[in-house]
Structure formats: C-alpha cells, structure tokens
Amino acid sequence: MTDVDEIRAAIAAIADEAHPPLRVRAAIDARTRHHKQRRLLLRAAGTLAAAAATGAGGVAAYRLRRPDGTVFPEITGGPGGGWLQVALRWRPDWLPEGYGVTTLGAVVDGTSVVAAERVWTPPQRLDGPNLASVALQSGWSDTYAQIPTAARTDRVDIGGVPGELSSFDTGGVLLIWQPAGQPRLSVSVGVDDLDAERERDIAVRVARSLRPDPGTFAVGPRPGSLPDVFAGQPWVYTLSAHGTMWTQSVLISNGDADLDVWASPDVRPLYDIGGSQPIDIDGARAWLDVQNHQLFVEQLDDRDVEVHTTIDGVDLPQVARAFDLGPVPDMTWYGSR
Amino acid sequence: MWLRESRMRGDPLIFEEFLAARLPALTRYATALAGDPDTGADVLQDVLVKVQLRWSRIAALDQPETYVRRMVINELISARRQIAARLRRESAHLAAPVADGTEQRADRDALVQLIRALPSRQRIVIVLRYFEDMADADIAALLGCSLGTVRSQASRALATLRGIAAPLSMEER
C-alpha cells in the first residue's frame, strides 16, 4: 500500500464514522423547524437594562445555569438603545424548568409596534442546538402571520377568555386568544414532536400564568430609503444569538417578495464572495452578487452585514448605505428569565 | 412564530429529492472534512437548513451540490467553528499503538488521529486532495485562495503526517 493509499484509507475510516443519513435528516427537519421559529417571529434589540433602570419590570437579572453543564453563555453586546421602544405588556409567571429568554423582537409598521415577542428556550447545548422553545407574542401582523393548516383545534379557557389551541402535523402548538381591550395574544410551543399533549399543556399553562409586564426594549436598526416594492411595508426585527455571537435581522416582505438584512459581529457570507463584485460601502469592503441578489459587507458599524432579496432590480448597495444599523445591541438580557 | 411558514420552506419536493440522493455522500464528506462525525453532522445540518431556506436560488445554479459543498467548507472554517476545533485539538490525544497484533492497524489508527488533529484548513486540503481526488487548482478555486496557499497547507499537513508515515516515503502529489 502506498503512502497516498494510507492517507486515503485513513480518511475513509473517518468518513465511515459518519452518522446514519436518516439521523442527520431527522436533525435537519427538527433544526429547520427551530430555525423558522426563531427567525420568523421577532427578535428585537433588547435593552432590558434600560427597562430596569427606569424601574420597569423587565427580565429578572440573573443568569440561569444548570448542573449538567449547559449554560446561557455570556453574549458580548454593546450599549444598546434605539429609536423605538417596544412594550412587552405581558410575562408568564410559569415556564418549563430552566428556560431563559433567547430572542426578542417586534413587527414595526412606520413608527408603531404592531407585535412584540419573547422566546424562551433551554440553555444552549454543547453538542447541538436546542430544539425546544416557548414564545409569547403580543399583537398580530397579517403580513407575517401565515398559520399552517391545523391538524387539531380545541377551544380552551384563558382567564375567562376563549382561546383557540391548534396543533400541526409539522409539530408544535399555537394558542391564540384576545382579552377585551387588549391586542391579540399568542403562545407557541415546540418542545417535543412526539408528545403533542405535553406541548398543549405547556401552552395553556404559560397562557394562564400571564401577568402584566411594564417592561420595554429598544429597536436599534431602521431601514432607510427602500425601493418602491418594499417602501412602507411593516417589517420584522429580531435579535438573538448563535453560539456566543449576537445576530440581528430585519425582514421586509410585501407578501410576494422579501428583503432581509442580517448583521452580527461575525457572519460568514452564504455565497462565494470570490466570484462577486468588490465594492465599497461607506468605507467598508463589500462584495455584490448581482445574479443572486445578495451583498456582503465586512465590518460595517462593527458588524458583518448580509443583504439579500428575492427579486431583480433592487439596488442592494443603496439599501445597505441607507440602512441605519443603530447601536450595538445590549445582550445582558440573554438567558434571563 | 408561524410566519410565512409555507413560503420559507422553499420547494420541498425538489429539496427532498436532492437530500434523498445526496445526503449519504454529503454526510461522509462533512465527516471527513470535519475529522469527526459529531462536528460533521452538526456542520452539515447547519448548512442544509440554510440551503433549504434558500433552495429556490441554489437549485437554479448549474451545480447545486458544488455550492452546498462549498458552504460546508465555509461553515467549517468560520470563526466560531475554529474555536470549537481548537478546543477539540487541544483535547485530542494521539492514540497509543493498538496491540491487536497488526502493526498496520496501529499505524492506521495513529494516522487517523493525526488527520483529526490537523488544523481545519490543512485537513480540508488533504481531504479534498486525497479523498475527493481534486486537483490543487480546483481546491484553490473552491477555497477562494491561491494555488500556493493550497500547496503550503498540504505541505504542512503532510509534514505532520510524516511523523508516523515517514517510513512510507510519503511524497506530495
């Protein structure tokens, strides 16, 4: 056997250890659902420190740790703050054991907040993603709410208000109700696809435990001038974390076309920038992929930025130049209750 | 939490076909590049989630799989992956020769451990060159670096592997 054959055989031995494709496939399906959940609803720039400073009842200032080694890592953020304050309105008194806030967000229409959401998950795992989450949304946006066909729907009582509890073939449950004089509320739970009853119990228990919450958080980023096709549309702003990096995103949709902006201290472009057109965005290096409607900007206002749209004819460099990323978000809320 | 569910799923039928046909090979590919099955699966899952969300665009490319394979490499050499890989290397120990009666088996095990412990870029170059049988120029194009960089990475990797493979008069291709 030659030396090259030895190397090939050694690499093949490593490849032979690959997990079974079906197991990988199941994990992809679960992770896709989780990714959608985390992306789809609101991840807003949280400045709960500001809420606490004003005496508002924000997230409790302790970081949850568990004895099994899973933790909510410290996420290095910035001063936070922003141009728009989002009222949280409600908070649950009860959550599954060990859950902490990992996502905040809002749907913004002009200068108004249409909906706000917090997502609680178990701590990050060292061996993979969390696939469980509980989300509370206050308010509603028809533009961004497309609920799949329910496999089962029940009527439940939430403090004397009728609610509709739906479960779906793709997993997860959604509970919607609207107290008199209040915005529509919803709790979505994705904990265990194999135990829909448990998910339904959690959703109802979380909903029944809600208490008023005067806390707020701030939205930092703001789109500037936009192409006509997106101008004036409400948009979704979310802030969360991947590993130890915070990630902001703004998604603008008109129902047919999307424009999304992702920003993080360290974002890898999802395309080969080597084949893209190098350009300058306000002094930052950038790469424009005209054919695939995407732009990657390196370290613009202390963060890497990716801009993507689904349609032709959008001047992505202009979108990036006009986009106000706002201050680096505060992340001290991450992992708190 | 359920926004735009159907549209973000892309085209499930075509993506399903791609996965059904290519997932076994991609799983082995990611495992070999990563040097361990857990990282390989984790990276591949991350990538395929992104692929699924953007499938309509990726499927329109001439060679979607090439694009996906490039994404796997990009993900492997991303900053956060590098941190995890460094921690893994620091905790990696060269296996002692296995007393199973075959010296060849012990050499193979030791070589496997050395390949696992290579810096990510070096291991990627070695895997692409010797497992995927790619030419250095193609590797350079895939990694977005110069031909010289590929060869220097390969040279360093081979120098490390020579620690046990020198008696086999290993030569660079």
Q: What is the helix content of chain B?
A: over 70%
Largest pleated sheet of chain A: 14 strands, antiparallel
Our count of helices of chain A gives 5
- Please name the CATH architecture of the largest domain in chain A: 3-Layer(aba) Sandwich
Low-confidence stretches of chain B: 1-13, 83-99, 165-173
Q: Any low-confidence stretches of chain A, pLDDT <50, length ≥5? A: 37-69
* Computed Rg of chain B: 18 Å
Q: Could you spell the SSE succession of chain B in H and E letters?
A: HHHHHHHHHH
The number of distinct helices of chain B, counting runs of at least 4 residues, comes to 10
Description:
The complex is a heterodimer of chains A (337) and B (173). Chain A has helices at 3-15, 21-40, 48-53, 196-208, 316-322, and strands at residues 84-92, 100-109, 112-121, 133-139, 152-158, 161-167, 173-177, 185-190, 210-219, 235-242, 245-253, 258-264, 277-281, 284-289, 294-297, 304-309. With 337 residues, chain A is an alpha+beta fold. Chain A folds into 2 domains: 48-218, Protein Transport Mog1p, Chain A, CATH 3.40.1000; 235-322, no CATH class. In chain A, strands 5-6-7-8-4-3-2-10-11-12-16-15-14-13 form a 14-stranded antiparallel beta sheet, sandwiched between helices. In chain A, strands 1-9 form a two-stranded antiparallel ribbon. By secondary structure, chain B is an all-alpha fold. Helix content of chain B is 74%, strand content 0%. Chain B has 10 helices and no strands. Chain B has helices at 5-8, 12-34, 37-53, 55-59, 64-76, 79-91, 103-117, 120-130, 136-143, 147-165. Chain B is globular. The N and C termini of chain B lie far apart (53 Å). The interface between A and B is large, with 63 and 61 residues.
